[in-house]
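Reference record
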Amino acid sequence: MVVPLEYQRTTRETRGRDGQVVPLDRPQTEWRTDLHVVRCVGGERRLLGPLASVAGNPADAAPDALRDLGVALAVEASPGRDSAWSREGVRAFLAGRDPDLPTVFRRVVDIIDHFMDFQPVPAGDRTLPPAATCRLVALWILGTYFLPAAGVVGYLLPVGPAGSGKTKLLLLLGQLGFLGEVINQAGSTAALKYLAEAGATLCFDDVENIQDRTFDPDMRSIILAGNRLGVTATIMVQGPDRAWVPRRFSVYCPKAFSSIRGFDAVLGSRTIAIPLVRTASTKANREAGDLERWPHDRRAVVDALWSVALRHLPLAERLYRTTTPDELLGRELEPWRLVLAMARLLDQGAGTDHYAEMLALALAKRRDAHDQGELGAEAWVLRALVRLVLVEGRTRLAASAIREEITRQAKDAGALEPDSDDTPITAARIGKLLRGLQLRKRTGQHHGTRRTHEIDPLAVRDRARAYGIPL
């Protein structure tokens, strides 16, 4: 891991114009901050950088120490000292004083629970307690430190009315997440692109402003992209010769947003929504920015998170690759996969069952989205076909019949007013969706004045499962 560490440097001699070493009459002392590398390979722990000489390894303090290992630093901006690993934390890690992962996790949960008042979550035949959402947020925070182990990271989206605690939760994510930063609208694109490239946890308040057409397009591309490893944004930068040239910046990093209304269907599929309501709990009076009132020392918790990430990163990578529950597929799994992998990491030898709880929470949120009608056009068509084809046994259908079933289900879900027939999916579009989803056994045929489609029940069952539509 690359860490900026502050140290005091004393200069006792310098070089004159002729290149000769000249002693200084009075030593000059200055505070510097330089990037260091902390390595943990097998049982070996090393610090490479200027402070390595203080740790008793002067060879690792030499400028060519990294080059000898075949490593080159490609970091153009160092993270803020408050969010980085502290010098004391690095010293404890090098000495082998390792924090216990379950203990670190419990402290993060304690902090979230101290400030936030979550609500129970209905999950089929049971109800998950508010503590389940606390653990979800804590697992997401833990996952920001394990980003190199993942290929996709889900956005976190606190959503609710004014006064429900959205901004407070963002502040907590910024205080505890990996290189966390809470970004306001006055932030510059230049700063944002370097933070994103460093993998920082970026927290944005009021996503409605970001989606406005007048918002800076370069900043929007950084903010709304980057949930997948390898995604870049091309931005014009000024080169050494002062000429403007295009450069690609990695924008793959954890992000959190707050919103009153929520995302659209496309961006919403990349997020884990955290519904919040305004309650009468005394937690509303607790300020997340008052670190003296935290139940645990923030600096110690952040240092512990850095330490456990460096120690457990190889195991976390293996767990992420094998986290493929049958209940979630494709895009529905992506925002949850790192959270589920972190749950499995915590469950290793601890006798806990965080994985089962998080999977139940993921399925509950999917079920709630379906019940509330928060679906894309493909999902609406599939829901209608599950009813018409798999339940009623009708395989030859006109687009108008499918549209009528969509209208009925939309009214039941509250997505349409009871006296409205204004379903946004037209019959013509339904035909295109059937073709795109490859649900037809044969192309549509005209029967009288109506065009009908012969639907493949096996294809309906397969696509419904892929979209998480209950059968």
The chain has three domains: 2-74, 101-369, 377-466.
